[in-house]
Records
---
Amino acid sequence: MIDALKPRIRFGQLSLFGKCLCLIAVVTALVAGLVSINAATLLRNVATQGLQALAFDSTDALANEVSGAIKFGKKPVVEAAFATIAERQGGKLAGGTAFDLQMEPVATFGALAADAQTALVDLGQKALQSGQIKVDASGLLVAAPAIFGDKAAVAGVVVLQWSTDELQAGYGAKQTRAYLTAALLFTILLAIGAWFLHRALRVPMQQVADAMTVVANADFVSTVPLTDRGDEIGRIAQSLDVMRHSLQMAEGERQERERDAEKQDLVVRALSVGLRGLAAGDLTARISGEFPLEYKALQDDFDAAMEKIGDAIRAVVVAAARIGNNAGVIYQQSEDLSQRTENQAAALEETAAAIHELIPTCADQHS
C-alpha cells in the first residue's frame, strides 16, 4: 500500500529537459504567485487608503454641512443629510450618529453592533473635547466636530462608521481576475519556456546523444554536429569530435597492424612451404604467388638462394659422377696391369724353368 502511494516517476529519472521544465514551472509559479500576492496586497492597501481618505473628508464635510441643524436640533435635516451621503457612498457607509454638545444623539443612521456603538460614542467624545477630527486605528471610524458660525464654535460632533464590505466584494472580483491573469501568464511563460528548452536544449542534446551512439557503434566517418556552437553543448560536441578523430586514427592504426600481420602471416607460410620443400630435398622449390611489395626482396632473395643452392648441388653431383667414372677407368687399368704382371711372371717362371733344364745340358756339352 505504501509502495503504491510512492511517485511513479522520480525527479532523478526525468530527462534534462523535464528537469529544466519543472524548474521553470516552479520558478514561474513562484514569480506569478508573488506578483499576484503583491498586486493583491497593493490593491488592498490602495483601496483601504482611498476609503480612509474618503471617510476622513466625507465625515468632515458632513459635520460642517449639518452643524446648524445640530445646533438647533433639526433632526429631519440631519437625517436627510445622512440619507444623501449614504445613497452617494453606497455600501461604504455602515452607519453613524450626530451628537449635540451634551452627547445626546440628534440623528442616527444604520444599525451598529453594541461594541461598535460604544466605540463610536467614545471617539465622538474625544473629538468633541479636543475640537479636532479623531480617527480610530482602522481609519474607518471617524469623528468630526460640527463647526458653526463665523466664530467657528463647536455645535456638536458627527461620527461615521465606514465599512470595507463593498470594497472587499469589489476587491474579491479584482483578485480573482488577478489570479486568472497570473494563471494565464504562468501558462504562457511555461509554454514559452518549454518551447525554448525544446529548441535550445532538448533538440541539440538529442543530436549530440545520437552522435555519441554513432561513435559508440564504431562509425568514425560520420561528422559530429553542433561543433560550431559556442556554448556548453558546442564544447561537448567539440570534445566528442576530438574523441572521434582519435578513435578514427586508432582504428586506422589497428587496421594497418592487422594488414601487416596478414602480410607477415602470408610471408611466413610461404617461407615455411619453401623451407619444407628444401628439407625434403626438393631443390626446385620456389615461393609461389607474389609477396607484398615490402617483402618482395625477401621472396627474390629466397628464390635466388634456392637457385644457387641447386646449382651448387648439381655441380657437386656432376663432379662426383666424373670422379666415379675416373675411378672406374683407373680400376680397370689397374686390373689390366695386374693381369699383365701375372702373365709376365708366369712367362718368367717358364723361362726360368727352361733355363734350369738347359743348364745341365750345357754343362754336359762343355764337359
Note: Strands lie at 93-100, 105-109, 134-135, 141-148, 153-162.
---
Amino acid sequence: MSITTEIKVGALFASTNDLRTAIAKSLMESGRGVMSGSGGGKQKKFYCSGRQKTGATLPGCPYEVRATKLRTGDWNISFASLSHDNCSGGSSKGRMCGIQSMVSSAVRLDPSVAATTLKKRIETSEGIKLSYRTTARAISNAARATTGECAESYTYLPAFVNDLQDGSPGSIAVVEVSLY
C-alpha cells in the first residue's frame, strides 16, 4: 500500500494532518473550505463548509469524506462523495489551510515578501484565486510561526537531544537552529 494525496476511496494518508491538508487542498481548488464532522479517534468525517447545519440534518452540499485509521496508523478513505450540488461555498478556512505551507516556504526564503507579490505568484503557479486579505493573513501566520509564539519551543531542543542520546547509546545528535 502506498501513501497518496488524491482524494478517493482506498487512498492512504500517513497522518491526520496529511489527510486534512489533502482534503482542504481539493476543496480549495473549487473555492470552498473544509469542516470536520463528528468522529472519534479512529474515524474522521469531513464536509464542505457550504453545508448548512439546521437541527439534526445537514442540507446543502453533499460533499463528504470519511476516513478510518488502520492498525498500521495510516488513514484510509472509506467513503467519498465529492460533488458540490446546492453548495453555497461556505467559508475559506480550507483555502487558508491549503496555502499555508506554500506561504510559509516563501516567507522562510524571503521574510519581506509582499502579499500582492505572493498572491500573484500562487495564483499563477497553482491556479488558485486568492484575496489579498487571505494572503496577508497567511504571511502573518507564517511570520508568527517562525518567531514569537513558536520561539520558546526551541528551548526544549537540548532536552530532546539528551533524551535521544540516552535512549540510543552511541548515537550523535546535534541541535542547529536557523531563523530562515
Note: Residues 40 and 166 are 35 Å apart (CA to CA).
---
Amino acid sequence: MTISNETASITTQGNGSNKDFAYNFEVPYQADGTTVAVNVFTISASGVWTERTITTDFTITGVEDPAGGSVHYPVTGSALAAGTYLVVQRALDYVQGTALEDQGFRASSVEEALDTLVMQTQQLVARSLRLTLDACTVAQLPSSDTNIGTRGMVTDATATTYASIVAGGGSNIVPVYSDGEDWRIG
C-alpha cells in the first residue's frame, strides 16, 4: 500500500439531523491489532472540546480502508446541533512495532512500517498546524472554517473582549482562536 492522502483529520459542523460523518483517510488499528487508532471529539458552540468514546458514544466504519469511512455519532440521542462540530483524527501510537530478522527481505513488512511512519508524521503536522500560528494581522489569518481549534496571535485587534469576533485596524495584540466560523479573541 502507499499513502497518497495527506489528510489525518477532519472537522465537520453539525446540522441537527446528520449522524454520519465521512472521513477520507486511513484509520488503522494500533500495533495490538484490535484498538482502532482514532480520536473523536465534539466541540461545543462555546469552543469546549470533549473527547468521545468508541462504541459508547460513536461507531466507525472503514477501519484500514485507505479511502476512509464514516463515524456515526451519537450512538443514541439527538444529532449534533448546528454551531457544534465533530472532529475525527487518526491517532496512531508513536511506537515502532516492526522487527526485521535476518531471514530474507520481506518488502511487505518494510512497506507497512514506512506507511505507519508516514501516517504518524501526518498526525504531527496536522496537530502542529492546529495549535499555533505566528503573530500576524487580522487580514493575514487563514480561513477560520478550515482551521477550527487553531490558535494564533494578532497585532492589530480593535478590541480585547474575550470570545468576541476579532476585527483588524487597531493596536491591540491579542491571542485568537478559530471556532470554525470566525476568529475570536481568547
Note: Helices lie at 107-131.
---
Amino acid sequence: MDFAPEPVLYDENGNLSQVLDPRPVRRPYCVDISGDFIIWRQYPASALRSSLKDYIAWDYLPSPRSQFANPSGDLLASFIKLGSSDDSDSLLTFAQKWGVLGICKHNYPYTHNQPAGQIEVCYPLGWDEQYGWISEFREPLSAWKFYSRQAGAILSMITKVNQGSGPSERDLAIATDPLNSDYDLLPDKPSNEDASVSKFIIADYVNRWLQLGNVHLSTSWLKRSPAVHLDYNNRLFGALAVQLMMAFYRQGFVVCSSCGKTYNRKGRRPKNGQRNYCPRCQHRSHADRQRDYRQRKRLNGIT
C-alpha cells in the first residue's frame, strides 16, 4: 500500500470523509555533497540582482515548475532506506529528486519555528542576511541519518503494535537517540511497555514530526469551489511527516518474518502470527513451510 498523502477530514459522525488536496515538494535549484555536508541553493547565484533586493529576505522569488514534484507513495520508505546505507550517492540522488530537510542551527528542520507572529524565525544553515534565499545552504549528513533512522523506528513501532506485539527495545532506543550506535546491542524483542503506553508513545512521536514539519491546514479559492489543503510549505520534512501520519492511520506496513525489516505490503494484511515476507525474502517462504511441515511430523511422531 502506498502512502501518498490522501488525508481526509472527519464528518459529524467521526467518520473520515473529505479528501484534502496534497501539496508538492520543492526541490532546490542545485544540490551536491561536499565532505560531511549537503550543499544546496534554492536559486541560482545569478538571481541576485538589484531589482530583487527587496524580496530576497523572503521565500517569494518565483521558481520554475520543474522545481516542484508531487510526493510519491514510496517517499517515506525511500527516505528510511537512507538511514541504513553509507552510500552518499543514494542520498544525493534522493535530495536531487525530492529536496532537502532544511536543517537549522538547532539541528531541526527550520520549519520547526514558524508559528504566526513568531519573533525569531529559523532559517537553514548558511543563511546570509545579505543574500537571503539566494545564499548557499548546507546541512550535515548526520542529520539525514538521524531523521531517517528515527522515521524507520517510528514506522517499525507502528507496525509491531498493529501486529499485536509491543515496540522493541531497539526501536524505542533508535527513536529516542538515532545516532547512538549502542542500539545495535539491544534485543529486537518486545519491550515491557503495555499496549496503551506504546500507542501513546507512538502518537507522541508522530505528532512531534508534524510539528517539526509545520504541517497545518490551509485554504485556497483559485477554482470554482474552495479547496482545503494539508500544507507544509512545499518542504520535504513536512511531506515525510504527512506520510508517517498516513502510515499511522492506514497501517499498511508490516514486519518481514525472515529479515525482520519493515516493508510496504501490497494487498491484504497478514493475520496475527502468520508469516509474511518482503519482496527480497519471498524465496524463503517455501523453505520455511517445509521446515514447519517437518517439525509438525516430528511432534506427531511421524517419520
Note: The chain is about 30% helix and 15% strand.
